[in-house]
């Protein structure tokens, strides 16, 4: 009897889980399906789900009109570059805060987070002027710099919480065994923090990949990443849903695939310490 | 410091290296079919000008406006050519953000531009942007539905005639709605239609002292008419419909009458996209008791920002993309029906164009009926037509548009919407220093 109840409960949870999962995934699925429709079918009411004339015309059109590879390269350089620089800066910061905190550590963390509280458009013009004078407008270097600064508070916060979970006693034990500071970080701390660092890295690559305010406003022709590629397919006068969907599918495909392969790391990192 | 010096050095070295070779022009534009066609035809330009290369930046309209405004206001010079509307040209020209176009060459023929369009992009007689395509607004209707309902729509209809026809054409059981009008909030969305409608009812945004006029009977009459008509004969959820949503409805045979930009005619008569291509009739923008057809006039124009280092090459391109030879180039490659409309007299005098584009004559009539220097019958301190040509209008227009969109959705009454519009406009105009 008890066994039957458990099975039924399991089934219910599985069904609910799948339902919620599909609901969350639905917009992406719909975008994907729309990318194979003609502009007319894309806006048809009632919407057509699977039984329409599938066409690759939109992908063909998008390929012929934009330089997709240039945008992908820019996106990769900007998101990976800004995340790596961010990590290099944030690991020592988070280490110091987690293992030798002072009275002001909490305030410093709060202050860092407060920089995220202002709407970005508030600093658009000053930053634009600095970029203009330093010749950084429409360069990948400029975008890497600005995205590093924007995501730095999040990286520090995430790493800080992960590092806090590592018991200080283990590090002490290592020191007792005669490990130097360098050895302690490389052989003891890092292996234990790898899931945390990995998930921070992945999450920040995704955040940087999707960042659409600064990447649109500080780029023009040369450094424009995939966000600009998507933005170029919206039209004020004329139907555009199908082509926009094709462009969006192409823009999210690389990051989706990356997320798929690194799922394990991501989930492990995000739930790190959650069961305590 | 050292790294900055190195960086600057590297950047200037790159810049010098670039100058020795071809000049690259960066062009900012929107994703409309005429612009995409221009992008595809640029080989013709680069062949004639091997020392000039082109880079295109296509953006969504609102993103483009924000992006280009930031760049041009800081004179950063990221763009050498920008695509801007008739709303921006006079405002930006007065700010000194645009270069006067005096190097367009002999073949440009400025006198050939339609006077209404030419006036809209000139300040003190000088051209500050060159019109690429122009549009007004007009009535498009289904001839078959009109016949079935036993109504005729005259060439110069009144709003009452439109309302009567729309009601008779409506058959909600087959999802056929008599009228489709914009309802989505925005200064360039529902407020374009509603300002033009208000003009045709004799209403005005401001009196001579910049006092908002939403408390006057003309506005009440226009807005009440719009809300009532849309409730009775409009599609469901109209408060989120803009140009594209109505285009989709009309093309799929769900609208009897659609009143919108003249450029729509080329979409709804294209048999590849439209189910009703051979059934479209046209009429001028309706009047509501005064002799005013709404004064809707818009053009997308190519301008050269004052911050560019390549003014000469930029003007060369502007001239190529907007002179008469370009029309012929498009016609030879894609047919006369695809030539950008609404900028030149010569196009409308061309019998081949009239044959290929059945909407040519009515488009020209609609454009000639618009006078942006006198938007409405009563005296006003502003110019414009479906918009008011002051920098504050983007903000105010969108805020008022939200009120009117809410009135259409039924969440506030027409009176409440007008009252809020009056209050918020008065507040913004006082803040802007117009009302002393």
UniProtKB/TrEMBL annotation, chain A:
The lineage of its organism: Bacteria, Pseudomonadati, Pseudomonadota, Alphaproteobacteria, Hyphomicrobiales. The keyword Cell inner membrane does not apply. Belongs to the binding-protein-dependent transport system permease family. It is a multi-pass membrane protein. It comes from the Bacteria. This is Sugar ABC transporter permease. It comes from Phyllobacterium brassicacearum. Residues 72-262 form the ABC transmembrane type-1 domain. It is found in: Cell membrane. It holds the Pfam family BPD_transp_1.
Automatic annotation (TrEMBL), chain B:
It comes from Phyllobacterium brassicacearum. GO terms for cellular component: periplasmic space. Pfam families: SBP_bac_1. InterPro entries: Bact_solute-bd_prot1, SBP. Residues 1-22 form the signal peptide. CDD domains: PBP2_TMBP_like. Its main location: periplasm. Keywords: Periplasm, Signal. This is Sugar ABC transporter substrate-binding protein. Belongs to the bacterial solute-binding protein 1 family.
């Amino acid at each position: 009897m008890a066994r039957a109840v458990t099975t039924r409960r399991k089934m219910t949870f599985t069904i609910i889980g799948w339902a919620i999962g599909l609901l969350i995934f639905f917009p992406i699925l719909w975008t994907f399906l729309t990318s194979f429709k003609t502009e007319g079918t894309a806006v048809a009411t009632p919407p057509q789900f699977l039984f329409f004339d599938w066409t690759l015309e939109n992908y063909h059109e998008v390929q012929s009109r934009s330089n997709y590879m240039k945008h992908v390269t820019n996106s990769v350089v900007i998101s990976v570059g800004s995340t790596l620089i961010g990590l290099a800066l944030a690991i020592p910061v988070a280490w110091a805060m987690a293992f030798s905190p002072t009275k002001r550590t909490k305030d410093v963390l709060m202050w860092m987070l407060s920089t995220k509280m202002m709407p970005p458009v508030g600093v658009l013009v000053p930053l634009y002027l600095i970029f203009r004078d330093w010749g950084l407008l429409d360069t990948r270097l400029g975008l890497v710099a600005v995205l590093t600064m924007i995501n730095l508070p999040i990286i520090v916060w995430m790493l800080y919480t992960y590092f806090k979970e590592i018991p200080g006693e283990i590090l002490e034990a290592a020191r007792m065994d005669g490990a130097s500071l360098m050895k302690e970080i490389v052989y003891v701390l890092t292996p234990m923090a790898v899931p945390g660092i990995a998930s921070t890295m992945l999450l920040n690559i995704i955040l940087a990949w999707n960042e659409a305010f600064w990447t649109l406003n500080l780029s023009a022709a040369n450094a424009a990443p995939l966000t600009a590629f998507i933005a170029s397919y919206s039209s004020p006068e004329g139907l555009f849903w199908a082509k926009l969907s094709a462009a969006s599918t192409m823009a999210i495909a690389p990051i989706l695939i990356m997320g798929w392969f690194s799922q394990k790391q991501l989930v492990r990192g995000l739930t790190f310490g959650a069961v305590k | 410091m050292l790294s900055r010096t190195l960086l600057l050095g590297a950047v200037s070295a790159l810049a010098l290296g670039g100058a020795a070779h071809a000049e690259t022009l960066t062009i900012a534009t929107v994703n409309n079919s005429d612009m995409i066609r221009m992008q595809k035809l640029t080989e013709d330009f680069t062949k004639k000008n091997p020392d000039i290369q082109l880079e295109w930046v296509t953006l969504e309209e609102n993103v483009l406006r924000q992006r280009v405004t930031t760049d041009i206001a800081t004179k950063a010079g990221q763009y050498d050519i920008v695509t801007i509307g008739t709303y921006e040209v006079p405002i930006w020209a007065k700010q000194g953000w645009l270069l006067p176009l005096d190097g367009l060459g002999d073949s440009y023929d400025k006198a050939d531009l339609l006077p209404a369009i030419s006036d809209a992009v000139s300040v003190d007689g000088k051209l500050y942007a060159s019109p690429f395509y122009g549009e007004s607004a007009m009535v498009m209707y289904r001839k078959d539905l009109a016949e079935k309902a036993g109504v005729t729509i005259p060439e110069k209809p009144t709003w009452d005639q439109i309302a009567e026809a729309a009601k008779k054409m409506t058959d909600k059981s087959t999802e056929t709605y008599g009228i489709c009008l914009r309802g989505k909030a925005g200064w360039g969305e529902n407020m374009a239609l509603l300002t033009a409608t208000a003009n045709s009812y004799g209403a005005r945004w401001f009196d001579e002292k910049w006092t908002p006029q939403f408390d006057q009977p003309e506005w009440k009459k226009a807005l009440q008419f719009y809300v009532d008509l849309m409730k009775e004969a409009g599609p469901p959820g109209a408060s989120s419909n803009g140009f594209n949503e109505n285009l989709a409805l009309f093309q799929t045979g769900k609208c009897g009458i659609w009143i919108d930009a003249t450029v729509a005619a080329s979409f709804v008569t294209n048999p590849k996209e439209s189910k009703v291509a051979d059934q479209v009739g046209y009429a001028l923008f309706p009047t509501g008791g005064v002799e005013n057809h709404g004064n809707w006039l818009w053009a997308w124009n190519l301008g050269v920002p004052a911050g560019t280092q390549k003014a000469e090459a930029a003007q060369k391109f502007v001239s190529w993309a907007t002179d008469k030879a370009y029309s012929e180039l498009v016609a030879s490659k894609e047919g006369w029906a695809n030539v950008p409309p609404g900028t030149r007299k010569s196009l409308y005098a061309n019998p081949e164009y009239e044959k290929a584009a059945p909407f040519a004559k009515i488009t020209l009539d609609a454009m000639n009926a618009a006078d942006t220097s006198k938007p409405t019958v009563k005296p006003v301190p502003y110019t414009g037509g479906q918009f008011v040509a002051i920098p504050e209008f983007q903000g105010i227009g969108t805020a008022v548009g939200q009120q009117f969109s809410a009135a259409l959705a039924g969440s506030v009454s027409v009176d409440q919407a007008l009252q809020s519009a009056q209050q918020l406009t008065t507040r913004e105009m006082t803040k802007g220093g117009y009302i002393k």
